[in-house]
Design a protein that fits this description.
With 847 residues, the chain is an all-alpha fold. It contains 50 helices and two strands. A two-stranded antiparallel ribbon has the order 1-2. The longest helix is centred in the N-terminal third of the chain and has 30 residues, at 2-31. The radius of gyration is 37 Å and the shape is flat. The relative contact order is 0.03.
Length: 847
């Protein structure tokens, strides 16, 4: 036992020594100055210690910010830490650089030129670091510094831009080159047009033709629209569009898909002539691409692309540029996510092999003939040849038969019927493939077109309606025959069924217009074809529905007949998401079409949406006022009988539906007469005031106060309604109803919904009776109403008011109330007089 006790004593001594040594170490560390701790741990062999130094640099700078010499010492230590051999330390340092730069910017008098002398060289050096994590961190830091405008324009042009350009040199690694090109595309809008054209544009054009790795071309394609927006229309058409044509015919489907996704921005930066003569035919090639993912992206961009044909005075593009801010519907879908997930190199290599088979059927000279040149004008047919993109190899075609020279007569066809028939026969054995079937349909349409009209130019048929119209602004080469594109999918049973009563010639002419190339419009109308969902995208109908307001605004109400059948088809689509999209935008379409077309074509669809699922009805309800105000008064009045149907929902717990109804009823009051409001909207408001959910009730109280304002013009209706409020709320068995009456009275005075004489006569006497209410919450709100609202009006303080004595007696009674909250609000004017906060705070614990 003695030995055991001795051992315990020795262990306690040892533990005590270790604890004291640790405490000494901590106390010594705390005694060091911030610079002393920085010097101590920056040279530590422990990587974690050096990481902690990097993380604490900002705190150290703040601690010594008053001494310029100490600040310079910290910045010098940062430069020393930047040479650390451990990548994690360098990455940690780079994460702190933007925060340190902001601090230096805010304290420029103490540490002038700190960023340009100490921090910027580190950022530039790390852009070419060998470690991937350090490079990624430096790129993110660079973007933050540019967004915060912490870098001088001269430093960016002389230090940053040359490094980025050097990183895209041919001898750079593929990963570095791809990363550098991505960061160049992001930096270009920040540095402006001048720097981009001088430093970035030549290398960007060069990278678009990089044949080593498709990743670089894919990055260029994905950011092509942004680059066009920076450099402007002239540089876009002279330098960028030829590269864009090459990217659209790239062997890798991922590159072509990226081109389809940015087509709208590229079109916006181009001139109307280029957009109509070149880009429209190029877009048709993407729609008929062998890859399903490319076709999917092209159809999703079709509506936005059509919107770029709108006149400058219209805002058609707003339906797509404001898309990320829209809460009701977003253009990004799960299908895009699936597409993004299936873009690894394995899948791309498979499609690359398929593309290689197609490329073998073309010579190098033929490929070059399909690309535009900035030095010479090339016919539209030579800019793009859809045959080059077929998955299944086809027989060689004599270029003289396939391509047309500029000096050919306009009536000479691009391909005669014999060659078209041969092409169709060669593809017929593979008709089971949906992609091949789509190509056969295009060829079949072209074959039919040759029989309709011999006036062909660059493989585009001139519509007869356009030729006979002297006011048409379209050129023969800009339009496809309506019959050609209408029959692009032979399985369009719905359109055939709906138009079977029309003569084919009349049917063709009914879809003619001169705003956008007819080929684009026909492709857009085909998005409702059921076969498109199988061969392109299951969500293609929803994309069509989302784009329809922008397309309608582009075409104008005079061309609504072109979209009417498509809109009706979408409105009856089996997918509720498609109908929901239309329901959220029907008010926008009504504004475009005007009252006559709206009453004739949109009102029936609007009525069907009212009886649809809650997911669809909410779209109608959110914009109920916006739609009804566009209707004629007689048509608008018919909906008074249907408003009560909104009280019934598929799910009784969907209280937000009823809350939205209350908000819309507030807006609808101005559309109807006082008698209609009393007969139809008043019962709805009183029903909503007794809702189980507090948020619905409080919104409904405001609705009641607005109804009082509306009925104030008719004394008989007002007296009747005020009496009903007293009976149902002031004399209610539930304390929440009595509290609601006090709140409505407060709102009526605050918002001046009725005259003070009318209030004093009909509402003030029952309001003062609430002073004896057994529930403190009711008395609290009454005290607030009297003190903050009524006594603020001189009318209630003068002897003219017959209720002055009763008002004073009630206030005295509340000041001596047993409840301290009631006594406080009746005696002292609270600091805040905002109505919503005071009223809601009274019920926060009970609702």
């Amino acid at each position: 036992m003695a030995d055991l006790s001795l051992l315990q004593d020795s262990q306690e001594d040892t533990d005590g020594c270790e604890l004291s040594s640790v405490l000494d170490f901590v106390s010594q560390d705390e005694m060091l100055t911030p610079l002393g701790r920085l010097d101590k741990y920056i040279s530590s062999e422990n990587i974690f210690n050096r990481q902690m130094v990097a993380r604490s640099l900002l705190d150290t700078l703040r601690a010594v910010s008053e001494d310029e010499r100490d600040c310079v010492s910290v910045l010098e230590q940062i430069d020393r830490l930047a040479d650390d051999s451990e990548p994690t330390v360098r990455a940690e340092l780079m994460e702190q650089i933007p925060h340190i730069a902001i601090f230096c910017q805010e304290n420029r008098p103490s540490i002038p030129f700190a960023f340009s002398k100490y921090l910027l060289p580190i950022v530039v050096r790390y852009l070419s670091d060998q470690n991937n994590l350090v490079r990624k961190t430096s790129q993110a830091a660079l973007l933050v510094l540019l967004e915060q405008e912490l870098m001088e324009r001269g430093d960016v042009e002389s230090l940053v831009c040359p490094v980025l350009v050097d990183l895209t040199a041919p001898d750079s690694s593929d990963d570095v080159k791809t990363e550098a090109m991505a960061i160049i595309c992001k930096v270009a809008p920040m540095v402006g047009r001048d720097v981009t054209e001088r430093l970035f544009l030549p290398r960007f054009c060069e990278m678009c033709c990089d044949s080593r790795m498709f990743h670089v071309r894919k990055v260029c394609a994905a950011n092509f629209g942004d680059m066009c927006g920076v450099v402007g229309g002239e540089a876009t058409e002279e330098l960028l569009l030829p590269r864009f044509f090459q990217l659209c015919s790239d062997n890798v489907w991922g590159v072509r898909k990226a081109c389809a996704e940015c087509f709208m921005t590229v079109s916006s930066a181009s001139s109307p002539d280029v957009r109509r003569t070149k880009l429209s035919s190029l877009f048709i090639s993407l729609i008929s691409d062998p890859s399903r993912w490319v076709r999917q992206a092209a159809f999703q961009s079709l509506g936005p692309f059509i919107s770029t044909f709108a006149s400058p005075s219209s805002n058609a593009s707003q339906f797509f540029r404001d898309e990320e801010r829209s809460g009701a519907q977003t253009h990004s879908t799960d299908a895009e996510a699936v597409c993004a997930q299936q873009e690894p190199a394995g899948r791309e290599e498979q499609d690359e092999d398929r593309a290689a088979q197609t490329a073998e059927s073309l010579t190098a000279d033929d490929s070059q003939k399909c690309l535009p040149s900035s030095s010479e004008e090339i016919p539209e047919q030579e800019l793009f040849n859809s045959f080059h993109f077929w998955r299944t190899p086809i027989p060689r075609i004599d270029p003289e038969l396939e391509l047309l020279e500029e000096d050919r007569r306009p009536s000479a066809p691009a391909l005669d019927r014999k060659h078209l028939q041969e092409l169709i026969e060669n593809l017929e054995p593979h008709i089971d493939d949906p992609d091949v079937k789509a190509q056969v349909d295009v060829l079949t349409a072209a074959l039919r077109a040759t029989a309709l009209d011999s006036g062909l130019e660059d493989a585009f048929l001139e519509p007869r309606a356009a030729r006979s119209n002297p006011f048409s602004s379209q050129q023969p080469s800009e339009l496809l025959s309506a019959d050609t594109q209408r029959r692009v999918t032979r399985d369009d049973d719905d359109s055939d069924a709906s138009d079977c009563c029309l003569h084919p010639e009349d049917e063709r002419k009914s879809k003619q217009q001169d705003v956008v190339p007819q080929a684009l419009l026909e492709q857009y109308l085909s998005m409702t074809d059921p076969s498109r969902a199988q061969t392109v995208d299951m969500e293609i109908a929803r994309h069509c529905a989302f784009s329809l307001p922008g397309v309608a605004l582009t075409l104008g109400r005079q061309n609504w007949h072109c979209l009417r059948d498509t809109y009706e088809t979408l409105a009856s689509d089996m997918q509720w998401k498609v109908r929901r999209t239309l329901a959220f935008s029907i008010h926008e379409l009504a504004l475009i079409l005007g009252d006559q077309l709206t009453a004739a074509h949109l009102v029936p669809i609007f009525n069907s949406f009212l009886k649809d699922l809650d997911e669809v009805r909410i779209g109608v309800l959110k914009h109920l006022y916006d739609f009804l105000k566009l209707l004629h008064q007689d048509t608008r009045r018919k909906y008074l009988y249907q408003l009560q149907e909104f009280l019934v929902t598929d799910n009784s717990r969907n209280w937000r539906f009823r809350s939205e109804l209350a908000e819309q009823l507030v807006l609808l009051l101005e559309l109807y007469s006082a008698q209609d409001v009393h007969d139809y909207l008043r019962p709805l408001a009183l029903c909503l005031c007794t809702d189980r959910v507090s948020s619905v009730r409080w919104t409904s109280y405001r609705l009641v106060s607005e109804i009082i304002r509306k009925l104030s013009s008719c004394s008989s209706l007002l007296v009747s309604f005020l009496g009903e409020l007293v009976e149902k709320f002031c004399h209610s068995q539930k304390w929440s109803g009595r509290q609601a009456f006090a709140f409505v009275c407060q709102l009526s005075i605050e918002e001046e919904c009725l005259s003070l004489d009318q209030f004093s006569e009909h509402l003030l006497p029952p309001l003062l009776q609430l002073a004896s209410d057994p529930v403190p919450n009711v008395r609290v709100l009454l005290a607030k109403t009297l003190r903050q609202t009524l006594l603020e009006r001189e009318y209630f303080l003068s002897s003219v008011n017959c209720q002055q004595v009763a008002l004073e007696h009630t206030l005295v009674a509340l000041q001596t109330d047993v409840d301290k909250d009631v006594k406080y609000f009746a005696s002292v004017h609270p600091g805040s007089t905002r109505l919503n906060e005071d009223a809601m705070s009274t019920t926060s614990s009970t609702y």
